[in-house]
Amino acid sequence: MGDSAIHAVAGSVGGCISMGLTYPLVNLSTRAAVQSKQEELSIAKAIKKTWKDEGLSGLYSGLSSSLLGIVVTNGVYYGFYEEARSVLLKRRAKTSTASPQALTTAEGIIAGLIAGSITTLATNPIWTVQTAQSTHAVVVPKTSGESDEAPNGEAKKIRLSAVDAASQILKKDGVKGFWRGIGPALVLVINPVIQYTTFERLVGLLLSYRLSRGLTSTGKRPTGRSALSDWDLFILGAASKLVATGITYPYIVVKSRLQAATHKYKSSVAAVLHILKTEGVNGLYAGLLPKLIQSMLTAAFLFVAQRRIFEMVKLVRHSA
């Protein structure tokens, strides 16, 4: 198993761990993004309301398809990204004075676009199903001796399973329905490009600074990512994701609405213009706070988990 394949495995497992830890925030952000003119709720109030209306399962609706999505997404993305990164570093290793362990900005963009485009095309159906699970519910029919109302007086609802959500999409829109929102999803390839380019730049700056000081926080000469501590990866991962999500969030809202099919927009541009007209700028940033917190924590945990899992798999491989 080559390093790119190990990175793919580590990214998939690390992604599952980080997604599991932060999923309620993913769910709340998605719901807020697809609702227009929704009641403004704090994160705490949104969690309390969801718990009251739907129970614990409501906070984790769509988790199964999200875990599948993150396994495939991270596996494909990290595999192609690390392979592209390795090729680009080898090509200029003998001809450039740039750091041999960090990509230049242009190289980071190229690697990210390649990996992101392939990943988006392959995984969009999974995320369409996840969005449907997170935002759609069905009324539970009344049975003998049971009330058809929830404790708060509203009709009882249950969240769709992944199979049910997929069946509804297929019945309503056919196979093409699984690629709803592919336009903004491809535009959002720029999100991981921004994230990883920012991450590489921060890594380069940190290593250059520590090189000038002689030692890293681990007490070793700075020779690349291996010289970074878990805390370094946590902070740099969170910071890079904050930048990426903050820049691209309006298109995340558009993609979520198109995938949920809660609004009949003719195109991504039409969606942006309609949201601005009916909801103002705030509509393009619905659910931003939980998304920022979730994205930062997910990225931070992911970078740490991925490094540790990568090292563990390599150790097992070498000792086998």
UniProtKB/TrEMBL annotation:
Q: Which PROSITE patterns match?
A: SOLCAR (PS50920)
Does the record bear Lyase in its keywords?
Answer: no
The primary site where this protein sits is: membrane
Keywords recorded for this protein, A-Z: Membrane, Peroxisome, Repeat, Transmembrane, Transmembrane helix, Transport
List the subcellular locations. Peroxisome membrane
Per the record, its GO cellular-component terms are: peroxisomal membrane
Superkingdom field: Eukaryota
Q: Where are the Solcar repeats?
A: 2-87, 103-205, 232-312
Chain segments annotated as coiled-coil in the UniProt record: none
Cite the InterPro entries for this sequence: MCP_dom_sf, MCP_transmembrane, Mito/Peroxisomal_Carrier
Membrane topology qualifier: Multi-pass membrane protein
The molecule here is called Mitochondrial carrier domain-containing protein
What organism is the protein native to? Papiliotrema laurentii
Q: What is the lineage of its organism?
A: Eukaryota, Fungi, Dikarya, Basidiomycota, Agaricomycotina
